[in-house]
Design goal:
The complex is a heterodimer of chains A (116) and B (115). With 116 residues, chain A is an all-beta fold. Helices cover 0% and strands 50% of the residues of chain A. Chain A has a single domain, classed as Sandwich (Immunoglobulin-like). Chain A contains no helices and twelve strands. In chain A, strands 2, 5, 6, 10, 11 and 12 form a six-stranded mixed β-sheet that branches. Chain A has a four-stranded antiparallel β-sheet with strand order 3-9-8-7, with no helix packed on it. A two-stranded antiparallel ribbon of chain A has the order 1-4. Chain A is globular. The N and C termini of chain A lie far apart (41 Å). By secondary structure, chain B is mostly beta strands. Chain B has a single domain, classed as Immunoglobulins (Immunoglobulin-like, Sandwich). Chain B is 0% helix and 55% strand. Chain B has no helices and eleven strands. In chain B, the strands form two sheets. In chain B, strands 2, 4, 5, 6, 9, 10 and 11 form a seven-stranded mixed β-sheet that branches. Chain B has a four-stranded antiparallel β-sheet with strand order 1-3-8-7, with no helix packed on it. Chain B is globular, with a radius of gyration of 13 Å. Classes of the chains: A mainly beta (116), B mainly beta (115). Chains A and B meet through strand 5, strand 6 and strand 10 of A and strand 5, strand 9 and strand 10 of B.
């Protein structure tokens, strides 16, 4: 079965430190990969995506993610965390076979807590 | 100038009632979606429409019926509401038409509470 895993329910980091939110996937073929962020009582907001090309993708608010095909991972990173980055982060995968339907598979979400 | 707007924001109702949630997008997208987020924040797609045509219809009880009068609107009607329907329902849109790898734009959600 195709799936996305975010192994950490919560990540805690001090402001100014680098952060990593992990994501691994299990799909056939070459998937499209996404990160979204959800602030309290809001809808999800798109951060970045990997379609093809350079494995390091840069996105909104200083976030970046690295696609690693051999490890089937797409970890979200930021060099220096801000308190305002505290939110719920979702990794999502669009299997290539589903690319004509838009049927995204979401991970279970990781809560990022950045402390001052 | 809200891109994807859904109403109402909160919906509290009793079991057995019928209710609707409305969604509108002004982004010119041709694909719209309904997602359900449960109490553990898990997100699951329910339906998607492309230019008023049903594309995705997940295993959802047939008490849930989407309706798309035009490509800018996708409403969700729920009959005979049950306690387990309590969740946050998100509408989203994207540029489809063979470019389904384009990002989703989400509304702010409708929190449905069934008592």
């Amino acid at each position: 079965a195709q799936s996305v895993a975010q192994p950490e329910d919560q990540v805690n980091v001090a402001e100014g430190n680098p952060l990593t939110v992990k994501c691994t996937y299990s799909v056939s073929g070459n998937p499209y990969l996404f990160w979204y962020v959800q602030y309290p009582n809001r809808g999800l907001q798109f951060l970045l995506k990997y379609i093809t090309g350079d494995n390091l993708v840069k996105g909104s608010y200083g976030f970046e993610a690295e696609f690693n095909k051999s490890q089937t991972s797409f970890h979200l990173k930021k060099p220096s965390a801000l308190v305002s980055d505290s939110a719920l982060y979702f990794c999502a995968v669009l299997p290539n076979l589903s690319s004509n339907t838009g049927k995204l598979i979401f991970g279970q979400g990781t809560t990022l807590q950045v402390k001052p | 100038d809200t891109a994807v707007s859904q109403t109402p924001k909160y919906l509290v109702t009793q079991m057995g009632n019928d209710k609707s949630i409305k969604c509108e997008q002004n982004l010119g997208h041709d694909t719209m979606y309904w997602y359900k987020q449960d109490s553990k924040k898990f997100l699951k797609i329910m339906f998607s429409y492309n230019n008023k045509e049903l594309i995705i219809n997940e295993t959802v009880p047939n008490r849930f019926s989407p309706k798309s009068p035009d490509k800018a609107h996708l409403n969700l009607h729920i009959n005979s509401l049950e306690l387990g329907d309590s969740a946050v329902y998100f509408c989203a849109s994207s540029q489809g038409g063979g470019r389904y790898n384009s990002p989703l734009h989400f509304g702010n959600g409708t929190r449905l509470t069934v008592t």
